[in-house]
């Protein structure tokens, strides 16, 4: 009998869903968090990264040996670099230079070429440069912001997992919004299962800088985003997101990034408004890729 051992790609998804024990306080609600940092490259972006490459390959749009290009703020880039290493692609990643040192090092560790744009140019500048490089024949852009294979990954995996793990009892889903792939795919699936489930998106307040999530100018709004799939949007202050992030580590043993702290902060706010609810928030990644920023050095 031949044993079929899994590959690293087979280990993406099926992440744990765990209950918060201390942060919610006395409440009739259950607050659950999905630990996407347990994916092989350490974030929720492992799912769309593999999806975008595998589906493009299946359509014949790309083939191993091709050079791929993507603009990223970090997690997608790390995940795509991993997926490219698995499948045999060269990768050029473009990101703002104020991203954490750990993120940059992780991308190059997987063999990707890294091009930095200034903090002022930001993700908009990174996206524009990706388009220019593709026009110059340097490679093909996957474009996570307009690529339907991004939300499809969450429609086919994250959403069904949440439904199964809560036995269909989920009442609210909270997710940070960057490319919006996670919230679009999960919303589509959960609303098909139960249209009463509330989908809550998180964006930073004006002036806040929370890695991985954005308030997009209208001209850069991701093309995959469909406003009707989100029931409510919560604006999150950077200080509140960082405060809850540190509390998650110190009081729940959950070590994560700032956007995850923001998602849980939004879930805790929501818990003050409802009763007997099952609220699920996404823990996007792990906290170790933020240590050099000093965000964990601050007292709570």
Automatic annotation (TrEMBL):
Q: What is its EC number?
A: 2.5.1.47
Q: Name one GO molecular function term.
A: cysteine synthase activity
Q: Which domain of life is it from?
A: Bacteria
Q: Which CDD domains match?
A: CBS_like
Cofactor(s) needed by this chain: pyridoxal 5'-phosphate
InterPro entries in the record: Cys_synth (IPR005856), Cys_Synth/Cystath_Beta-Synth (IPR050214), CysM (IPR005858), P-phosphate_BS (IPR001216), TrpB-like_PALP (IPR001926), TrpB-like_PALP_sf (IPR036052)
Q: Which PANTHER family match?
A: CYSTATHIONINE BETA-SYNTHASE
Q: Under which name does UniProt file this protein?
A: Cysteine synthase
Species of origin:
Stutzerimonas zhaodongensis
């Amino acid at each position: 009998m031949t044993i079929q051992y899994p590959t690293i790609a087979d280990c993406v998804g099926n992440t744990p869903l765990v209950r918060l024990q201390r942060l919610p306080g006395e409440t009739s609600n259950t607050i659950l968090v999905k630990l996407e940092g347990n994916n092989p490259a350490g974030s929720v972006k492992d799912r769309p990264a593999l999806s975008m490459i595998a589906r493009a390959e299946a359509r014949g749009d790309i083939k191993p040996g091709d050079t791929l290009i993507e603009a990223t703020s970090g997690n997608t880039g790390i995940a795509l670099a991993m997926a490219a290493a698995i499948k045999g692609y060269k990768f050029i990643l473009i990101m703002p230079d104020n991203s954490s040192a750990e993120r940059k090092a992780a991308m190059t560790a997987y063999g990707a070429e890294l091009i930095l744009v200034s903090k002022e140019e930001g993700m908009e500048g990174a996206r524009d440069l990706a388009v220019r490089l593709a026009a110059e024949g340097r490679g093909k852009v996957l474009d996570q912001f307009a690529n339907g294979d991004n939300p499809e990954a969450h429609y086919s995996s994250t959403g069904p997992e949440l439904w199964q793990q809560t036995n269909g009892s989920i009442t609210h889903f909270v997710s940070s919004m960057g490319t919006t792939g996670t919230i679009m795919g999960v919303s589509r699936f959960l609303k098909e299962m139960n249209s009463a489930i509330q989908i809550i998106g998180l964006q930073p307040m004006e002036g806040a800088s929370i890695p991985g999530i954005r308030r997009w100018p209208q001209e850069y709004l991701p093309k995959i985003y469909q406003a009707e799939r989100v029931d409510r949007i919560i604006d999150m202050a950077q200080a509140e997101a960082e405060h809850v992030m540190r509390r998650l580590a110190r009081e729940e043993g959950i070590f994560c990034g700032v956007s995850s702290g923001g998602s849980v902060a939004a879930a805790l706010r929501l818990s003050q408004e409802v009763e007997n609810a099952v609220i699920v928030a996404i823990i996007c990644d792990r906290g170790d890729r933020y240590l050099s920023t000093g965000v964990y050095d601050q007292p709570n």
